Amino acid sequence: MSDLATSSDYAHWRAESDSDGFLWLCLDKAEASANVLSEAVLREFDQILTMLESSPPSGLVIYSGKPSGFVMGADINEFTTIESADQGYELIRIGQQLFDRLEALRCPTAAVFNGFALGGGMELAMACTYRLALDTKKAIIGLPEVQLGLHPGFGGTVRSVRIAGVRAAMAMMLTGKPIRVHKALAQGFIDRIVSPDNWKQAAKELLASGRPRRSAPFIDKLLNLGIARPFLARLLKKQVAAKARPDHYPAPYAMIDLWTKHGASNDSYAAEARSFAELMVGPTSRNLVRVFFLQNRLKGQGGKTDTRIERVHVVGAGVMGGDIAAWCAYKGMQVTLQDREQEYIDPAFKRAAHLFSKRIRDANDRAAASDRLVSDVEGRGVAGADLLIEAIFENEEAKQALYTKLQADMKAGAILATNTSSIRLENLRTVLDEPGRFVGLHFFNPVAQLPLVEVIRCEDTDQAALDVAFAFVKAIGKFPLECKSAPGFVVNRLLGPYMAEAMYLAEAGIPLAAIDAAAERFGMPMGPIELIDSVGLDVAMHVSTVLSEAFDRPVPNTLPGLVEAGRL
Questions:
Q1: Contact 374, 328 (CB under 8 A)
Q2: Residue 280 CA to chain centroid, in angstroms?
Q3: Which neighbouring-strand residues pair with 418?
């Protein structure tokens, strides 16, 4: 153990022993902002375990050297190098066997979470005797593998059920959503929440306590019996089927099947590795991993800027403008919302109240979010806003008239943005004194659910203004997609023909329900006809007209008549 404590042979781990014989093992992955369980990290961990097996300490504490959190999970980059299920199986089994050896050490072990503990990081922690979490707002735990078309592979489908029970474990794994540590404590995933000031003492006390390892509640042990598993499995599959089909998202069904067949027994580990490996090389996981990397590319867009958006003024309290304003307030910004009359703003405040009640549990935090959203018919917030977002109806003249008024009152350095869905920025900015600082910020409906925001630029848009726009989008938890100012930008350029083809099919006599059903069978979350109804036929016709003029594509014959009749 002394050799380990003084060794400098490790690039990613640091070890230190204290006078009581406890070993403090710090994971601090080299040249990385967050810890991940890469092949190199696990290879060094293998060497460390070999030494600990021959000379165990009084207790082992594993913690993170990164301020961001414990361990993010496995190294997703390495997944893309796996070419076959057999290759994947061998790799996963190596990781499982490492965690088995950690669990079997002849000393108590503890993992300490200083922030997130996700995926493989949580699986590492569940192989320890105890788990402690620092009492911080950023502390969360989770098994989010299903979001990559996978399930836990380092023993997580087994240990989570053994520790917290099948109900809590399946809820965490099937949704992929992380939970806060206080909920994790109540469910049994962690043993203690500790102060950031005395976590080392708390860890030592827990290691010395001799408390038995956590196990599932009694009722979950009953549910885990072979006679009960098929009944609960049917219920779980019914819940999953309401959100995802097995041919599109096989991972949650594979998780349920593993538990149904093996019940978190020792046989489960090899079966988990085989199932994980097959999912890993399947099309769903391959594509979701690709989406994961694309999202990371979006997060990396934009240069550094010292300008922070703290005050936002939104003009237009319709569904889009009102929901943009509410989301910005939810994310901590001071927001003023303007429209012609209070009666147009009131519905937006009702929707905002619903958003806050759904997303914010603490009553004081919920009240604070409500206080940050202010009705502003007179437009007093224009002068103090760092960012102004125009979200009125799609009409060039109306938008330009508004810009003329706004720029007269805007403070120096403020950014003006439009939420236009299709109008080229070059057409809108002709009335502006500083057209280079005018950008597009195109949100999608519903704002609270859809993560993409198109950041639209002209050829001569100021890079500094774009950097502020990128920083703003990331600050409110969205993904910025840089777009050239062109008809339809990116999303509507893709979506327009898809929706138009659906209208052509309808005009040819294909039943509307049949069109939507075909699209949903293919995997779309919503059929194109329902989507057209949702965005509004007037908006659909406007976008279709813009694309028609640009690309010589006819507007579907049915749209103009329906819009004129007010059937939107």
A1: no
A2: 20
A3: 390, 440
**Can you tell me whether residue 379 is helix, strand or coil?**
coil
**pTM of the prediction?**
0.86
How far is 184 from 12, CA to CA, in rounded Å? 28
Task: Please list the residues that pair with 62 across neighbouring strands.
Answer: 25, 111
Alpha-carbon gap, residue 109 to 156, rounded angstroms: 17
DSSP code for 381:
G
Angstrom distance (rounded) from CA 114 to CA 139 = 6
Provide the β-strand partners of residue 112: 132
DSSP-assigned letters across all residues of 13-40? EEEEE-TTSEEEEEE--TT-SS-EE-HH
Q: Which amino acid is at 395?
A: N
Cα distance between residue 440 and residue 458, in whole Å: 9
The DSSP secondary-structure symbol of 558 reads H
Catalytically annotated residue among 12, 262, 313, 442: 442
Residues 6+ apart with CB under 8 A from 374: 334, 335, 336, 337, 381
Residue the block writes with tokens 């009749």: 565
d(CA 438, CA 399) in angstroms, rounded, equals 13
Give the CA distances from residue 42 to residues 1, 17, 78, 123, 209, in Å, rounded to whole numbers and listed in that order.
19, 21, 13, 13, 29
Cβ-contact 24, 63 below 8 angstroms: yes
Q: Round to whole Å and give the CA distance between 97 and 46.
A: 10
Selection from 357, 347, 314, 338 nearest residue 476 by Cα: 314
Phi, psi for 231 (deg, rounded to 5): -70, -45
Q: Are 471 and 308 in contact (CB under 8 A)?
A: yes
Phi-psi label, residue 362: left if phi above 0, alpha if psi -120 to 50, beta otherwise: beta
CA proximity to 540, closest of 493, 489, 487, 500 = 500
> What is the token pair recorded at 431?
């009335």
CA-angle at 459, arms to 458 and 461, nearest 5°: 60
Spatial contact of 279 and 250, defined as CB atoms under 8 Å apart = yes
For residues 379 and 407, the answer to whether their CB atoms sit within 8 Å is no
354 catalytic per annotation: no
The token pair at 240 is 């999953």
- The CA distance from 12 to 65, in Å, is 10
Per-residue model confidence as pLDDT tens for the chain (568 residues): 445 655 567 999 999 999 999 999 999 999 999 999 999 999 999 999 999 999 999 999 999 999 989 999 999 999 999 999 999 999 999 999 999 999 999 999 999 999 999 999 999 999 999 999 999 878 899 999 999 999 999 999 999 999 999 999 999 999 999 999 999 999 999 999 999 999 999 999 999 998 998 899 999 999 999 999 999 999 999 999 998 899 999 999 999 999 999 999 999 999 999 999 999 999 999 999 999 999 989 988 877 888 899 999 999 999 999 999 999 999 999 999 999 999 999 999 999 999 999 999 899 999 999 999 999 999 999 999 999 999 999 899 999 999 999 999 999 999 999 999 888 999 999 999 999 999 999 999 889 999 999 999 999 999 999 999 999 999 999 999 999 999 889 999 999 899 999 999 999 999 999 999 999 999 888 999 999 998 889 888 888 888 888 888 888 988 899 999 999 8
